[in-house]
């Protein structure tokens, strides 16, 4: 291609990272990484962001905070719908409630999850079952039940998005050899990262892109115990190549990217958000 022709094909990208008018559902969105991601979606132009978690009050409080953000698009709103993602009947009810507000969904962030810490010799079966159930089975069921809404207005040129929250614990070796080891959590996150790759192939032809994020340590309620066991925030920050832990905008920015036109050709991938920690040490 000649230089003149190549220059003539250049395009203007005024909205390459914008999500104007998009409809999103964020499971586990009342706190932590889900809430930060939801704030990014709203501030990038999303028109409706449904926040769901088990506790109705937590959903309402999260939506009140989101709806107070000054950078929302005019008329943009966060809507609370409490639901227990571990139960198929509750996921189906969630879908039915979302349908009362919209005839389609553009973005699904499958973020609901839990962890359990205990030593290998005493790690109970019910803990492994609970973690695998919520962190893997519920993620599959949520994506499956929302697929018709995700497909409703999706096209190959403007695909819908599914973002699965994994973890670096599903890539490197997680917490082991201590009284708060997370065997089930690490295994569950490895499972959903591979589920992401399988669903990317399954749903891509339907106009639904499926990607995952793998956060490292972010100060949050779920991570606080493990952070403490590893010496606290500052000690962990000092072991990172960029000398800090994750911040809200780190999650929000990656999620917005994966949901935007900028990522229209990204499918089945996992974006690690750990500041290079695994590269520097080979472990968490």
Automatic annotation (TrEMBL):
Keywords attached to this entry: NADP, Oxidoreductase
Alphabetized Pfam families for the sequence: adh_short_C2
Family affiliation: Belongs to the short-chain dehydrogenases/reductases (SDR) family.
Keyword Ubl conjugation: no
Annotated organism of origin: Trichodelitschia bisporula
Record-given protein name: Gluconate 5-dehydrogenase
Gene Ontology terms for molecular function: oxidoreductase activity
């Amino acid at each position: 291609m000649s230089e003149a022709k190549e220059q003539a094909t250049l395009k203007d990208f005024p909205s390459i990272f914008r999500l104007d008018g998009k409809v999103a559902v964020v499971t586990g969105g009342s706190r932590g990484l889900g809430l930060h991601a939801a704030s990014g979606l709203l501030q990038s132009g999303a028109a409706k962001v449904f926040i769901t978690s088990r506790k109705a009050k937590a959903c309402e409080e999260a939506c009140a905070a989101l709806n107070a953000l000054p950078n929302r698009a005019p008329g943009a709103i966060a809507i609370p719908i409490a639901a227990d993602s571990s139960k198929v009947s509750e996921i189906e009810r969630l879908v039915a409630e979302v349908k009362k507000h919209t005839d389609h969904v553009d973005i699904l962030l499958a973020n609901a999850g839990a962890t359990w810490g205990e030593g290998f010799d005493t790690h109970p079966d019910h803990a492994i079952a609970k973690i695998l159930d919520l962190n893997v089975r519920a993620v599959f069921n949520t994506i499956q039940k929302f697929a018709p809404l995700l497909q409703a207005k999706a096209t190959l040129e403007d695909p819908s998005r599914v973002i699965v929250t994994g973890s670096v614990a599903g890539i490197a070796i997680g917490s082991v050899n201590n009284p708060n080891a997370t065997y089930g959590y690490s295994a569950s996150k490895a499972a959903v990262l591979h589920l992401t790759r399988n669903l990317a192939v399954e749903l891509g032809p339907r106009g639904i892109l499926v990607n995952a994020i793998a956060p490292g340590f972010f100060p949050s309620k779920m991570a606080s115990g493990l952070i403490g066991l590893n010496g606290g925030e500052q000690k962990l920050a000092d072991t990172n190549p960029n000398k800090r832990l994750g911040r809200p905008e780190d999650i929000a920015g990656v999620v917005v990217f994966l949901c935007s036109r900028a990522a229209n050709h990204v499918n089945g991938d996992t974006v690690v958000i750990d500041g290079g920690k695994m590269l520097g040490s080979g472990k968490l």
